[in-house]
## 1
Amino acid sequence: MADVIVGGLFQTPRRQMPRLPNTRRIYSDEGMFDLDGYLERIGLSGRPGIVEVHRAHSTSIPFENLDPRRGVPVSLAPEDLADKLISRRRGGYCFEQNLLLAAALRALGWNVELFLARVRYGAPPGVIRPRSHLLLRVHDGERAWHADVGFGQGTLLDPIPFGPGGEHEQAGWRYRVVSDGPEHVLQQAQADGWADLYAYMPHPNPEIDVGTINWWVSTHPHSPFVTGLVVAIQDAEGKRSVLSDWGGELTLTERTPTATSATTVTMEMVPGLLEERFGLGGFELDGEGRPAPTTLKRATSSRSTILG
């Protein structure tokens, strides 16, 4: 999920904007993809099916924005995604998660298309957000699937049939897709009715569009992925754990389809929580109080000592 705010998009002076990275090469070359390494990362082997891969990925690789939160732009280059999410066993946000899934599904022989959606969840009435969330359409030769392992605070456990249709129950959570004018809208059932999660046009987007909005989401000073922290994971039984300060206070929230608990935490507790709750070890707070990889912090400290 890349829930970005459009206010002030063009108010930042040009000289302050980060340089747009090369968007020519996003994770689309399945010939370069380490399928066995990916399957080991999500606890599978052999040649599993679409549903099995989707569920294993969505319960194994955490959603997180730790890089843009500390000022590091997110790269979608093939080697960078593989190094981060597979080799270093990190997590990522929607573009990283779903492009990695797309590469795996292509390597397994299925056709995959990219779609950009507007996040509606939590949006004030009348606010139109940019198309800053990535989902996939996967064709298995018989039907098309709506796949999404990157909607951080409540992503699908399993793929669902693409387009409007009936309800889909997954570990107690209920989803459906409805039409709203020309758009398709993914909704989730809540205590007071159905809530819109995101809306998308039913035609695919080119990769350069994904690369461009990824750059904005991971670098713009008004993006909540730059200004705030969000880390999330779910298990196969439907329990969701979210560490975030998007609501104001830094809070660890645990949700099931029937109950929610929230605990206020301090930033000093974050490295331990990342390891214990989200499987993200090797983090410490940097000099500005942000979670950073331990090796990076030590290397930066050593350079500062030498330069001093």
Note: The chain has one domain: 14-232.
## 2
Amino acid sequence: MGCMMSTPSDPLLYEAIRSKTKHPVNGATHYSRPAWPSSYRISDANGNDPTSTELEDKRREFWDTQPSYGGNAEIWQALKMAAETMLTPSGDMTLAYAVIESADVIVAKPDMTECYDTTGARYDIPKWVLRDPSNLRHKPARGGGGNLDYSQVDVMSLRSRDDEGNVRPGGEGNDDAGSECGSAISQQDAVATTFDGEGGTNARG
């Protein structure tokens, strides 16, 4: 009896794997159609789920500091543009592909967590930079007047309120979408992240 090979449940990730080819510049293994990483969970050193504000801060810190560890600044800029494009509500992958190709980035893993430039310099990108974790908690943006990112909040977690702000009968109770997180994502997460879901430890080498 032959063995069955499992395929990712995410169609885009499956297509990314199928796009495996050789980079035209130096012949390195290259996934020309990278996709979002598979679903995962992340927490801080105390086991707290991250909030959207904390994750945005960590992503900003990542892009501000990673170029100082080596690599080409233009490649880092291209990777940032592609990653931010993937994070938009529409997730314009066509534009992300175009950015990657124009910069001659070699995508060594189909989820874009490991890339190289044509000189051989390596660029590691954590999953949490490319895709929101499944346990992300949403809270009002700083100074944002309590606005939530409705494109990502589970509709069942939104409580129905009347004009005076009281919870209406039948609304969902004990919603923690706006609660404070005990502590920010640990500084070490910028180097290594442990995932409770799919995948393992992703560290910059």
Note: The beta strands are 20-22, 29-31, 106-107, 114-116, 122-124, 192-193, 202-203.
## 3
Amino acid sequence: MKKFLIIISIYFFTTISAFAEFSFTFEWGDIKKCTTGNPNKVSNPIFNLVDVPDGTVELRFRMKDKDVPNYNHGGGKIKNYSGETTIQPGAFKYKSPCPPSGSHTYEWTITAIGDKKKKLGKAKATRLYPE
């Protein structure tokens, strides 16, 4: 029984830590200021990636306004991902943050995809706009 608990503990710890490592930060960059509630179509923010899972061949990006979660800001994909740690503007277009009053909290989600469309990991980061 003791060996079983040790094996389960090791498995659980390594599984959790494998997903916990993938993370990122982002900067809005030089997008046109928008506070009208009518987003612009703009280039992606600058993404700085950390510990993207091994075997990742595609990255999927999606932005959500945490204050208006039903609004679809879109996102994009980077197919043929080859290990870059910085994703510069111009990789894809999306609907910019554009709260009608005050600041909103925006959340980007990046999903790492491997061969045969297998999901290898997911990371999220949030930021206010305007800051």
Note: The chain has one helix and nine strands.
